[in-house]
Amino acid sequence: MRLTKIAPNNLIRMAQTRDFAMRQRIVSELRRRADRESHDALRQICTDEHRIGVAAQYTADLHTHTIWSDGNYIPEEVVWLASMAGLKAVGLTDHNSMGGVEAASIAGESMGVEVVPGTEVFVNYNDISVHVMLFGFDRSNSELHDMYSGVVRMTQKRAETEFANFLKEGINIDLERFRAERPGLVYNILIIDYRARDICEEKAADEGISYFEAYEKYYEEAWRKANREMIVGGPIYIPLPSAILLDPEALVKATHNAGGIIGVAHTGQYEAKFEKQAVNIDTRREMMRMLEYFRSIGADALEVRSSRNSPEQEHIARTFTEANNMLQLGGSDMHGYRTSPERILGSSGLTHQEYMYIKDRIF
């Protein structure tokens, strides 16, 4: 098979194979091309290859992200990595989006990995953004869909305004190209990375070098420049609308009306948020108050085992769920090679027994 005329995104999909000779041919072809799209595809395919031979510690990882929010992989690649790690189930929990579920589910059927559809949504708890995960709901439920997908539309509208601000500053960024790369929720960190790669592309053209060379030479400097351009209060920056933080009680009710379950993600993370909010605050007590609040409004679960929880925080969450007859979720919160690469797929999750216990509630 000739690979020379196949688009980089299609080569990514073709690389999801146990035929490592074919995978190496794809890698060689992408290296030969040395343009921006091929470089991005090559990084996606290669960066985690050293992890492929490492078996996952758990049966199910119910917390992952793709390009449909702030992850770096297409959905099929997440499933392929799960298969290679020996996971039997993987949860797709993009922020406020179910856009990657269909592609992931098709890939899961062919690779023997059960794909658990879900989403991770932001809610407002005492002016702090708390992340909650939703599973097992009727995706055709318009009330719930409108709640979480409305946030995506807000972030995309904000991105359009910021791209217009770039243009006012004499910087032309291709919005359609960005949308093709990032079809879901848009964080400013994603725009900064995209702008930095634009700068690398400009450097490659100016110096007559390959994009690969320009990326290695200039990316960190370009990222800092793009970050300065988008600093709070600067000419590009537009604040996120407060409406992206949903009302937790309304979301719990809507999730239950749609037949789903809802749980607080990476529970230990919020101690640091409480500490930033007030001086001399007992962060552990505030975290316990938060857990009690979510239990009182009907939350079904906590993410007990998480790559972002310390052993002590995991113990606290586990004890709380057991005392209150709540479900226990678990996942790595894997994003990929550019965003939080330390969160390795399958490094946190659920054992076979734990997953089977909650599976009936999800499907």
Strand fraction band? Answer: 5-15%
The multimeric state of the shown protein is: single chain
Order of secondary-structure elements: HHHHEHEHEEHHHHHEHHEHEH
Fraction of residues in helix:
40-55%
How many helices does DSSP assign?
A: 15
**Average of the residue pLDDT scores:** 91
Supply the CATH architecture of the domain at 47-136 and 260-362. Alpha-Beta Barrel
Class from helix and strand fractions: alpha/beta
Question: Measured on Cα atoms, how large is the radius of gyration?
Answer: 21 Å
CATH class of the domain at 47-136 and 260-362: Alpha Beta
Low-confidence stretches: none
CATH topology of the domain at 47-136 and 260-362: TIM Barrel
Spatial order of the strands in the main sheet?
1-2-3-4-5-6-7
Ends apart, CA distance between termini: 40 Å
- Main β-sheet, in a few words? 7 strands, mixed
Shape: globular
Report the CATH superfamily of the domain at 47-136 and 260-362: Metal-dependent hydrolases
Count the strands?
7
Give a brief description.
This protein is an alpha/beta fold. The chain is 52% helix and 12% strand. Among the domains are: 1-46, no CATH class; 47-136 and 260-362, Metal-dependent hydrolases (TIM Barrel, Alpha-Beta Barrel).
